[in-house]
Queue: 2 jobs
Job 1
Amino acid sequence: MDFRIIHIDETDSTNRWLRANGQDYTSSVASDGADGHTVCEVVVAEYQTAGRGCGTNTWESEHGKNLTFSLMLHPEWLPARRQFLISQAVSVALCETLETYIYNKVEIKWPNDIYVGDRKICGILIENRLKGPHIADSIVGIGLNVNQAVFVSDAPNPVSLYQLTGKETDRDELLQRFLKHLEDAVYRPAALMGYEERLYRREGWHAYKDAEGRFEAKMDGVMDDGRLMLTDSGGNRRVYAFKEVTFVI
Ligand code: BTN
């Protein structure tokens, strides 16, 4: 993959910017770089005035301190029903990247928050456009807490690399390392990606909450379509789509 990196100082949201200004690589001719590789556009902003989180959430990030960026993939070979593979590849690549900076365990809180201990270091917002039964393009937005020392929003449990290591990290180098891991992960079969092994709370009994209330369960894994499988303390299998269940932390 050839990464074409665009740096901008300020925008409302890099996901929105890329959707509006990203080049249309949907024709097969345009999707090839000079050496025949697929081109992947990456837009990096120093500051977002309306950074978007999942659902109605916003994304806090101090000017010039973190990595807030979006990239556009064109996995036209990927059936729409397997679109969760994008989430898996991106989150595994982020874990692998962060593990080159810290000794702490880096985990994926289903479906795709990146956690260190019980704190969130990175959020991912993926927006796919479908073309029939396939994915036409996928905008992958990533907010990675790098050098921010203090968080002021009501985000429940943020943490940054700076808070974990006590020193500043070069953001360009971090981005380059991530893009290498991502390129490697997207071509890896799901089973070898290690998504499930990296899941936060993969082992043991933990508290969850759904529309019926709080319950204890153990995690069984994730289905191909991304739904989470739990077994509750009564021995019942429960299957949840995103937002249907929350982790009680
Ligand atoms: C979440 O955990 O709620 C997802 C957060 C995603 C934030 C990133 S920052 C770069 C990109 N642009 C956005 O507006 N959001 C994503």
Note: The pocket of biotin is lined by residues 13-15, 48, 51-54, 57, 59, 68-70, 113, 123-125, 141-143 (CB under 6 Å).
Job 2
Amino acid sequence: MKVYRMASIPGDGVGPEVIAEGIKVLDAVAALDGGFHFEWTTFPWGCEYYLQHGRMMDDDGLARLQGFDAIYLGAVGAPGVPDHISLWGLLLAIRKGFDQYINLRPVKLLRGAPCPLKDVAPGAIDMTFVRENSEGEYAGSGAWLYRDQPNEVVIQNGVFSRVGCERVMRYAYALARREGKTLTSISKGNALNYSMVFWDQIFAEIGREYPEVETHSYLVDAASMFMVKDPKRFEIVVTSNLFGDILTDLGAAITGGMGLAAGANINPERKYPSMFEPIHGSAPDIAGKGIANPLASIWSASQILEFFGHNDWARRVLEAIEALLTEGTTLTPDVGGSASTGEVGDAIVRLLSRS
Ligand code: NAD
Ligand code: IPM
Ligand code: MN
């Protein structure tokens, strides 16, 4: 029996509520399959931990996570702790420490999912964002000078390395070639006259290694407009860290909301564990009420199954989500229902048992 060693970091707010349902689904899949098993270790890291111990995770946190096959994370952030402290102390520390330089985010309109756009059928929105996840606008390079003085200055540098750009482009081109899809780069070379001119140049350079891939290139302002007006023009998308962050929340908005949007932080070389998460935050406005939508977490559970090569189960979990959305009887309030978080997880398990 294959055993997957899983680290779970439920984190803050709705994180623990939705991660419990994802674990429920993964354990149910393993039981139904009979050939593999998930062994869970839960880490109590997050904002409560910070308030007690003065750090978001233990000093040897990365060393302790290193031995796991994958990390399953809920959400990080709570009103009592500044966001840049909590996120840099945990989520970003793991993404960077484990060189998870690919952030894979499906933006796909599932059957039955509510869509605020008119005349858009499921299938007409089917994108995969490949977000650069290790540097760019999130490099953490800068300075805060003359703090609280009249001449105060803050500097936040964007850092775009040749290695960093080439590897994310190659990953995106290879994915587009494998799936027979177009590849669109989203950048902003007209205004960001160093970083994004460089980005566009590397996109073209790496493209010569993949002549069979049809490419498009958009400025980010126009791209955000087209994502709403004509989303079918995007298939595989490669973009920078900050643009990818913003555009995938927009992507969530056109495909059913934050409760449905999943993401995988991948270290493609598998030198370090990869990390799977819903892309939403800790949702303090609904935390503790038992109404958070666990489908984003369950979709990221499907990404875990795919990462381990259980493609058939990954597909069946997505189909169960589609079946639930289409039935429409057991959904949380954000997607028009009145069910609880736990009821949605149970319903997915029931659908999988019948599939
Ligand atoms: P958010 O994603 O937490 O919430 C935005 C809106 O979406 C809220 O109205 C919330 O109720 C709703 N929402 C989010 N997840 C939902 C779910 N599963 N079901 C139903 N509705 C859901 O974003 P925010 O309010 O900007 O941030 C809150 C905190 O989370 C901040 O501390 C922020 O820094 C942090 N954050 C963390 C992550 C992460 O850990 N990956 C991601 C984004 C934000
Ligand atoms: C996300 C989040 C994070 C990001 C924040 C919380 C640092 O918004 O995963 O989308 O910007 O990457
Ligand atoms: Mn985000």
Note: The chain has a mean pLDDT of 98.
